[in-house]
Amino acid sequence: MTREGRMDMRKWRVIGAAALLLPAMASAQLFKCKGPDGKTVYSDSRCEAAETGALKVTPMGTTPSEREKAATEKAAADKAAAEKKAAEKAAWEKGIPPGMVLVPAPVAAPEKKPYEMTSSDNQRMRNLEVDATRAGAYSEQKSAFELEARHIRSGRDAAMSSDEKSRRDAYHADLSSTDAKKRREALEGLRRLYY
Questions:
Q1: In a domain, 69, yes or no
Q2: Three-class secondary structure of residue 195 per DSSP
């Protein structure tokens, strides 16, 4: 047999051996664990240390997170069932027939009081109104008055930071400009600031 023929035979033997070993390599590892009773147990999943110090074998195909999740769900279901049973027992003791368990109505949140305008808010409203209603006032000034008045009454204007208030004042100054583009930009700036 030629040298090349022997190389081919070796190559085929290696491929054949690899093919035979491949299923064995693909199978899971085997773990040797000691059970809670002290006996040796073989498993394809890792062993875990129990509270007693002995090792236990985890069930096949599960991970600790899945087991923990299942235990948590079971505990929640058990708790809900126990609460339902306790509620039915309490209802029975009060003379309410089974199936007629009353659920307490949800407690309503306390009503939010409307914003009370301060004297500075009132003064700002008067100044804005004077600017918007004077003869020759631009439409942008009138729109800005409506926008700002709504936000002053709601308290959103008072909640603005000092930076936001300075930007608001700059936009308000630009609203009296003779340049229509500058007035439109100032009105848009106010809208972005308030919304």
A1: no
A2: coil
Which of 101, 105, 151 minimizes the C-alpha distance to 124?
151
Whether the pLDDT of residue 27 is over 70: the answer is no
Q: Dump the DSSP string for 73-130.
A: HHHHHHHHHHHHHHHHHHHHHTTPPTT-PPPPPPPPPPPPPPPPP-HHHHHHHHHHHH
Question: 87 lies in a domain?
Answer: no
Q: Residues with Cβ < 8 Å from 175, sequence gap 6 or more?
A: 131, 138, 140, 141, 144, 183, 186, 187
Residues 144, 124: contact at Cβ < 8 Å? no
Convert the pLDDT of each residue in 150-168 to its tens digit: 888 888 888 889 999 899 8
Give domain status of residue 106, yes or no: no
For the whole model, what pTM was predicted? 0.41
Distance between CA atoms of 105 and 89, rounded to whole angstroms? 19
Number of domains present in the structure of the chain: 2
* Residue 124 lies in domain: 119-194
In a domain, 101, yes or no: no
**Cβ count near 58 (within 10 Å):** 16
Task: Choose one of 42, 59, 76: the last residue of a domain.
Answer: 59
- Name which of 170, 128, 185, 175 is nearest 151 in CA terms: 128
Phi (first) and psi of residue 42, to 5 degrees: -105, 135
